[in-house]
Amino acid sequence: MTMIKNVSSSPRIVSESRLIAGPESDVKIHLINKRLADLPRFSAERTLVMMHGATFSSASLFDVAVAGASFMDVLAQAGYDVWAVDARGYGGSSRPPDMSRAPEEGAPVVTARTAVQDFAAAVDFICRDREIVSVNVLGMSWGATIAGAFASAASAKIEKLILVTPLWLSKEPLRIDAGGPLGAYRIVSPRAFEAAWRGAAPEHARHDLIPDGWFEIWEKAALATDPDSPHPDTIRAPSGAVQDVRVHWTADNPFYDPGAIACPVLVLAAEWDVDVRFDMAHDLFVRLASAPYKRLVEIGQGTHMVLMERNRQQAFDAVIGFLNERVAPAS
Predict the structure, then answer these.
(1) Between the CA of residue 171 and those of 31, 120, 213, 283, what are the distances in Å?
(2) pLDDT (tens digit, 9 = 90+) per residue, 271-305?
(3) Which residues cross the membrane (predicted)?
């Protein structure tokens, strides 16, 4: 295991980057950790482990500081020992060998099944390191697939589950799948992604969706997660998540059973999300039949990337409020 530690611009937050053993001997999993320097103790209730989506790694989804703080900074300031995981093929984790060749030379790598194994290894490491037996879990988009599948199979390890713009069943094609043959990975330009990001909002709202300067900060952070990409100003993203869409989410074949999730659940949706529409999030919510309690929150004037948009504080407040609750709402 390697570890890099520094104190962020806020003197009270400690930031660590760790590289831990994965589920196979040749796999290393990258973790980011942030917490208050004077956090009095570690506990299951105050530990949160997060999983990224299909295209961008955890650093570029959860730890880009705009307006003075990233999502991870805000969670740490709220008193949480917060971790973010990169599945293999993403960010600082090991890249499968096929990702060092031309995309068309390999089959799609890093499906949800593989990512669940990586996430489970990360949770086990965190529980050992912090001497706790369970954690809170947050997954975004495809990462919600990983989080949901993990929670459905390991309920004893989960305190609370948060699913942000969660990928789920769709009777319509999804934007992430452009059709055609799938290679091992995709070449993604964050600059080109900006058009799709803003394009989900009504035309009159596209400029103000992302405050001035935020996109440029995010783009720089995203590109830094894959300095070895073979094309300038791009990152590589495994194609396994797109294969998951074809095999599961547009084939009426759920990857996991939400009814098996036995912890409190928050589902967070966004009004202008065209990647995971509200009907998809609501269908998932209805199926969470075993949750002791559950909540569905829709953030107005937000898209699939709501955690990096002007209304992000509403999403932050919903997440932290849910985590802070210590008892189920009265029936």
Answers:
(1) 35, 30, 37, 12
(2) 999 999 999 999 999 999 999 999 999 999 999 99
(3) none
